[in-house]
Amino acid sequence: MTMRPEQGTLISRAQAMAALLELLTDQPVVVCNGFPSREAQKIADRPTHFYMIGSMGNAPAIALGVALAKPNKQVVTFDGDGNVLMGMGTLATVGALKPKNFIHVVFDNEVYGTTGNQPTISNVVPLEKVAKAAGYVNTVRVLDRDDLVYEFQDLLKKDGPSMLLIKVNEFQEEAERILLDPPDLTKRFMNAIKG
Amino acid sequence: MMDSDVFVQSLQDLGVNFFTGVPDSILGGIIAELMNRRLYTPAVREDEAVGMAAGAYMAGKMPAVLMQNSGLGTSLNTLISLNVIYRQPCILIVSWRGQGGKDAPEHLVMGEVMPQFLDTMKIPHRTLTEKTAAEDFRWVADTFKKQQIPVALFITKGVVKGLHP
Ligand SMILES: Cc1ncc(C[n+]2csc(CCOP(=O)(O)OP(=O)(O)O)c2C)c(N)n1
Ligand SMILES: [Mg+2]
Which CATH number characterizes residue A144's domain? Predict the structure, then answer.
């Protein structure tokens, strides 16, 4: 694994995700395609998780649909830097609509990790600043576990839309493919977020 | 020619309660009516609109996405790798630009192949006419509920009143 300058002390996406999932209970979480979904399934598989296996770039759009339809539920999306870059227009839609119940977590490893660590351009495009300019109310960039826990707890208490961008290293857990069939994931998620 | 408020009311009567999309001139009257009724959430790309509709569906809504047929190209991957495989239905209200080869050049290819294009993706579709409207709307709702995948209703020029009749 080649180290980038900022990277020496960074935690992995899985470590960051485990810390966040400890702070979440029954909030709907929409997880982008690729290893982020597979790692979330491995760390804590909950019916309130919606794992994407395709439609790269659409995680925040799906989460936004949930958030608009359920304004009294806090909705979280776990996203990757490559995914955010692909669906960057949705930062503008979220920023303009300003759903208070929307938390966008970005695991930024500066690569398309799932497909073999090809570099993205998030090393030179600060995605949380793009979100801020687009109208997100709170945007934070964190580099280590303590900050991550502190800031996420803080965002859970605040009105959004919020973005928490976590710089993570390129480490990828061994995590199997999503186990449930897609239609069963849909049904499970729908039942879990009812009411 | 059908009035936009009749069109919107028909969809609401079917139970449709989440509307998003990207405008086209043919859909101008419908979108204006949806905005009057404060029912419309604007999207910036059609794949985003389809994604939002999928989220809304999973949160209990019956969603519709309005788009020009070029947007079917933009949203193709989302339609098949989200809606179709996850069984997440939505109603696609698609304006048929380029129908019959009489339109601006950018619309001609999609205008010609659109029905076969949706057939290939196994997305059911039908073209709205004023005479068959009641039946068309019923078919849309039935297909949505039975097949649990996207269903497209094509809107040709002049069938629903636009902004500039
Ligand atoms: C439309 C589309 N293009 C490409 C891919 C292949 N692909 C799957 S995951 C992925 C990388 C995602 O990168 P990122 O969001 O940064 O997540 P990471 O894997 O780094 O955690 C790519 C390119 C895809 N699934 N869909
Ligand atoms: Mg990445």
Answer: 3.40.50.970
Beta strands in chain B (DSSP E): 18-21, 40-42, 63-68, 91-95, 125-127, 151-155
Check whether A8 has a pLDDT greater than 80: no
Interface test with A, best of B46, B86, B148 (most A CBs within 10 A): B86
Q: Cα–Cα distance between B20 and A74 in angstroms, integer?
A: 21
- Residue having the nearest C-alpha atom to atom 16 of ligand 1: A82
Lowest mean pLDDT among A40-44, A143-147, B36-40: A143-147
Report phi then psi at B83, rounded to 5.
Answer: -60, -50
Distances, alpha carbon B10 to alpha carbons B30, B35, B89, B142, in Å: 12, 16, 18, 14
Q: What is the pTM of this model?
A: 0.97
Instruction: Specify the CATH number for the domain of residue B98.
Output: 3.40.50.970
A111-112 and A118-119 beta bridge pairing? antiparallel
The amino acid occupying position B15 is G
Kindly determine whether residue B47 and residue A30, on different chains, have CB atoms separated by under 8 Å. Answer: no
How does residue B162 score in pLDDT terms, banded at 50, 70 and 90? confident
Q: What is the pLDDT of residues B38-68, one digit of tens each?
A: 999 999 999 999 999 999 999 999 999 999 9
Domain count, chain A: 1
Helix H or strand E segment including A38:
helix A35-43
Domain that holds residue A88: 7-192
Burial of B5: CB neighbours in 10 Å, binned 0-12, 13-18, 19+: middle
